[in-house]
Amino acid sequence: METDLFEYLQTYLTDRRKALFKEVLAQRTRHFTVVTEDVYQLHNTSAVMRSCDVFGIQDLHVVEELVGKRVDKEIAMGAQKWVSLHRYDSIGACMDTLRAKGYQLIATTPHDDSMMLSDFDVNNKTAFFFGKEDVGLSDTVLKKADGSIKIPMYGFTESLNISVSAAIILQDVVGRMRQGGVSWQLSEEEKTELEMEWTKKTIKSVDQIISRYYEGKNS
């Protein structure tokens, strides 16, 4: 990252905005991440993205193998500015990528043999997989995941909306993660890179401003 450009762009932000960026970055984590597989209702993807932002999850991985490119930048009420979105054409590619980054892969499913959410060990770096609204996760995820968890339910209904499930699970695991001895914070390098990204997304006509900056340096 170009330090001089970063410092220049920061002059376009208020002191309050700069302080807010640092405050939020101090609470961000990549210890947990979220994957949605072929979710076809845009409002559900939107709600999951907002939950990621609310609970400090920096990355959302969206697999669009069957439903096509449906993630719209307008759907997340601003959360797309702050949550890093990663898109995949196949579930296999997503799973391979996350394994390479050191994540264990956990399916969320109400099946009887799934572990109860309260019993899940938050010390492990984990990617939580959420599936389609009607049929849930694919057989590929269920067979290749390292394990599965479920939310306890006591009524007639056997499943929850994906966005509700994501919020419940994230609230639980993030809360326990913060109370334990897990090293969950971003590195200083990651914080700086994200602060630069957020700064660019905040400034209007940022491309023109950057062009003028380089023109001034080269003149």
Explain the overall architecture.
- By secondary structure, the protein is α/β, with parallel strands linked by helices.
- It has two domains: 1-28 and 188-219, no CATH class; 29-184, Alpha/beta knot, CATH 3.40.1280.10.
- It is 43% helix and 15% strand.
- The chain has eight helices and seven strands; from the N terminus they run ααβαββαβββαβααα.
- It has helices spanning 3-10, 15-25, 42-54, 91-100, 139-144, 162-179, 188-202, 206-218, and strands at 32-37, 59-63, 84-88, 104-108, 115-116, 126-130, 147-150.
- A seven-stranded parallel β-sheet has the order 3-2-1-6-4-7-5, sandwiched between helices.
- β1 (32-37), α3 and β2 form a beta-alpha-beta unit.
- The protein starts with a helix and ends with a helix.
- The model has no long low-confidence stretch (mean pLDDT 90).
